[in-house]
Design goal:
The protein contains twelve helices and ten strands. It is an alpha/beta fold. It has a single domain, classed as Spore Coat Polysaccharide Biosynthesis Protein SpsA, Chain A.
Length: 278
C-alpha cells in the first residue's frame, strides 16, 4: 500500500465500538485496498480507541483516529477535522454503523468525475440481524445477500433491489428513481478540493440534515450530484438516536432554507472560521 493513498474513507462514530468493528470488517473485505480509513470520532470512550487499535493490527488497514472530547453532538466539527487529516485527494464518506459491500470503493472510483459528487444508497437492518452478523458473514458477502437476509426474517420488498441489482439493472434503476441525488452521510463521495472549497460541514448544525446542507452548497457551487444508489450500497446497522430533537431539527432546517434561498457556496462555520469566500 502506498504511503499516501489517493482515496480516504471518512467514517463517523460515537460510542458504538461493536458496530464500528463490523463496519471495519467491510472495509477489510474491499476488492480495492488502496485507501486509508479516517475515523471521525465525536468523543467516544476508551473502548472505541482500543477497538480501533486492535483492528488496525488484525485487518492491516491504514487507520487514522481523529478524536475530540465529548461535548454534545458535534459530528460536523469532527468530520471537518477528519477532512483536514485525510491524505487522499478523493474522499468517500460513510458511517461507523454501516457495512459496505466488497465493491464499494471500486464503484465509487469508477463513477468519480470532476464537477460531480456521488450519492449512494443503504439498506437498513433490524436489531436482531445487526447483532447476528459475524466477520465471516462480511468476508463471504452473506451479510448483503437478499436470500440470506430473508432467511433471517428481513423483509425489504422492492428496496431489496438495491442489494441485488447487477451492472445491467442498476443504471436503469439509478436513472428512474424518484429519489434525488443528495449528499448522504452513509454513502457519498467527492473530491477533497470541492469539499474544502465550500468549507466543509456547517458546525452550527446538530443531528439531521447537515449532510444534505453540505450537498446543497456543493450544488450551489456548480457541482452536480450523480445517482449511484443502486450501483453501490451498504447495510445500516440498527441503533437508537437519542440526540434527535425537534428543536435541533428545526434549527437545521432554518440553516438549510437560508443556504437554498441565498444560494450559499460557503459557510463561515466550517473548516476555516475566518469570514471569507472561496
Amino acid at each position: 500500500m502506498s504511503s499516501k493513498p489517493n482515496v480516504s474513507i471518512v467514517l463517523s462514530t460515537y460510542n458504538q465500538p461493536a458496530w464500528l468493528e463490523k463496519a471495519l470488517w467491510g472495509w477489510e473485505a474491499q476488492q480495492d485496498r488502496d485507501f486509508e480509513v479516517v475515523i471521525a470520532d465525536d468523543g467516544s470512550r476508551d473502548e472505541t480507541r482500543e477497538t480501533i487499535d486492535r483492528l488496525r493490527e488484525e485487518t492491516g488497514l491504514a487507520i487514522r483516529h481523529v478524536w475530540h472530547e465529548d461535548d454534545g453532538f458535534r459530528k460536523s466539527e469532527i468530520l471537518n477535522k477528519a477532512i483536514e487529516a485525510s491524505s487522499g485527494g478523493y474522499l468517500v464518506f460513510s458511517d461507523g454503523d454501516c457495512i459496505p459491500r466488497a465493491d464499494f470503493i471500486g464503484v465509487h472510483m469508477a463513477f468519480a468525475e470532476p464537477g460531480h459528487f456521488l450519492s449512494g444508497g443503504y439498506f437498513k437492518l433490524n436489531a436482531e440481524v445487526s447483532n447476528l452478523i459475524s466477520r465471516d458473514d462480511v468476508k463471504s458477502g452473506r451479510f448483503i445477500d437478499p436470500a440470506w437476509l430473508k432467511s433471517h426474517g428481513v423483509r425489504g420488498g422492492l428496496k431489496m433491489l438495491k442489494l441485488s441489482a447487477g451492472e445491467r439493472l442498476a443504471p436503469l434503476l439509478n436513472a428512474t428513481t424518484t429519489t434525488k441525488a443528495t449528499w448522504n452521510g452513509h454513502n457519498s463521495s467527492g473530491f477533497k478540493s470541492d469539499l474544502v472549497g465550500v468549507n466543509g460541514f456547517d458546525e452550527r448544525m446538530g443531528y439531521g440534515g447537515q449532510d444534505r446542507e453540505l450537498g446543497e452548497r456543493l450544488m450551489n457551487r456548480g457541482l452536480r450530484g450523480k445517482q449511484i444508489r443502486h450501483s453501490t450500497v451498504c447495510v445500516h446497522l440498527d441503533h437508537g438516536r437519542p440526540w434527535r430533537t425537534r428543536a435541533g431539527l428545526d434549527h437545521n432546517a432554518q440553516i438549510r432554507r437560508a443556504t437554498r434561498a441565498e444560494r450559499s457556496v460557503w459557510t463561515e462555520h466550517g473548516i476555516r472560521k475566518a469570514a471569507q469566500n472561496s
